[in-house]
Amino acid sequence: MRGGAWVAKLVAAVLGALVIGACTSLSSNDFASKETETLRHLVILYTNDEHGWMDPYQNTGGSAGMAYKWRQEEGWTEDGPFLVLSGGDMWTGHALSTVWEGESMTEVMNSVGYDVAAIGNHDFDFGLDALRARADQAEFPLLSANIRESVSGKTPDFAIPYFVTEINGINVGLIGLTTTETPVDTQPSHVADFEFLPYADVLPDIAASARGEGAELLLIVGHVCGAETRALAPVASELDIHFIGGGHCHQEINEVVDGVRLIESGFFNRGYTRIDLLYDTENNSIVEMETEFVPNKAGREDTEIAALIESWRERTDDSIWETIGYADSGIDRKSPEMAALLLDPWLDALSGADAALASPRYVQQDLFQGEITPSVIIGILSTTNELVEVDITGAQLIDTLEMHRPLMAGIVEGDNGYQFSDGGAIDLDAIYRVLVPEALYGGGNYYEFFKFDPEPTYTGIDWRQPPIDWIRSVGSTKQEPINEFLSD
Question: pTM for the full model?
Answer without folding.
Answer: 0.92
